[in-house]
Amino acid sequence: MKVYDVFVIGSGMAGMTIANKCASKGLKVGITDELPYGGTCALRGCDPKKVIIGATEVRDFAKRLKGQGIDTIPKVNWKDIMAFKQSFVDEMPPKIEKGYKKNGIDTFHNSAKFLSENTLEVGNDKIKANKIVIASGSKPRVLEFEGGHYAQSSTDFLNLAELPKSLVFIGGGYIAFEFAHIAARCGAEVTIVHRGENPLENFEQDIVKHLVSATKELGVKLILNTDVTAIEKVDYQYQVKGKSAEKTAYFEAEAIFNSAGRPPAIFDLGLDKANIAFTKKGVTVDKYLQSTSNPNIYAAGDAADSEGLPLTPVAVLEGHTVASNIIKGNSKEIRYPPMPTVVFTLPTMASVGYTESKARELNYNISINYKEVGNWFNAKRLNVKEYAFKTIIDEETQTILGAHLIGPHSEETINLFAMAIKTKMKVSDIRTMIFSYPTLASDIPHML
Description:
Elements: E1 2-9, H1 13-24, E2 29-32, H2 39-44, H3 46-64, H4 78-102, E3 106-108, E4 112-114, E5 119-122, E6 125-134, H5 154-158, E7 166-170, H6 174-185, E8 189-193, H7 205-217, E9 221-223, E10 227-234, E11 237-243, E12 248-253, E13 255-258, E14 278-279, E15 282-284, E16 297-299, E17 304-305, H8 312-328, E18 341-343, E19 348-353, H9 356-361, E20 366-372, H10 377-381, E21 388-394, E22 399-407, H11 410-422, H12 427-431
Parallel strand pairs: 1-2, 1-6, 2-3, 6-16, 7-8, 7-13, 8-9, 15-17
Antiparallel strand pairs: 4-5, 5-6, 10-11, 11-12, 14-15, 18-19, 19-22, 20-21, 21-22
């Protein structure tokens, strides 16, 4: 049996942070991941996705300015952009493993299962550790209806050698919208089938409706209030069966993708054998990110049922918190700053802080500034139709409680709102700031 001070399950950003920080303090550390080292974001999520989006941004910009100084709209070469994407992905796992070995961390490449409260089976090895960290991330939800296995994952989409001519996405979350925008701009026929009344339910719906409008204008079919109940292979394509209150509908495409959410990847770890309490959202943890039922266990990132959003920077924050508590004893409580989140469609949609409904639920005395501003200079110079904002102001403190944007580079502008919320800047102070002009940030004072 191999013995460690700390053993980490998962080599995404949370696990990586914990392993390296603990090793730097002289602790004997081991880490395992059944997938290549790097985690979802670097290898199968945000990073490769953003590389691919880069090509579609060029095409979108040219299309908006056609006739305004641009004559030709370029086509995206799928093979070339995938090769460019892969150059980022391929270099990551060996780079990370080299860093582990340099720091004296033992590396494993197998799934882990608990045998008891502080022992694991990792491949053919038995592992005992004083502290075990579950940072195993998330994975696609299993589609349990007939033919659900025909649906491919987001990872599969990011590794397509060729883009299918037609695609159906099951589920109306950010993965569906981001990939639908990519595929549609690359010439594919795209359909999103969502079981709810509104897509992107966790975002401010006054802003979501603008993204819905832009998505439909792109040619994407958005089917709401429809439960997918089966997938059938028919000749060289697939038929998706969907049921709504009124009727049964069928949608055909060359490829079907599962974008119905990503639960935590913890349910195959044998948590019961280790007396680890958990929910459908992850391992149940306290303010130190320690298991509430087994003091040998900590959890971070998507594997933890915490208040943190499933975002890479949040996983890093939780990783630092866990490492500190392992090294020094439980002395650092997890504290979440405002967590900006972005849907990387075109236009991008971004959000930070409270939605209007959440602020009212918490009994804040609020004022709302919501406006469609396609007539503002920054929208007109870029020939952007969808540009809107909704800001929520605390009337008592005159500070920002939430900001929700759609429009060019909202993924950057939202960070300034996050900073303002964290530092509790007064609205009057922001209004009197001088921003460089003309920039998207220079619109901020007019959004308050």
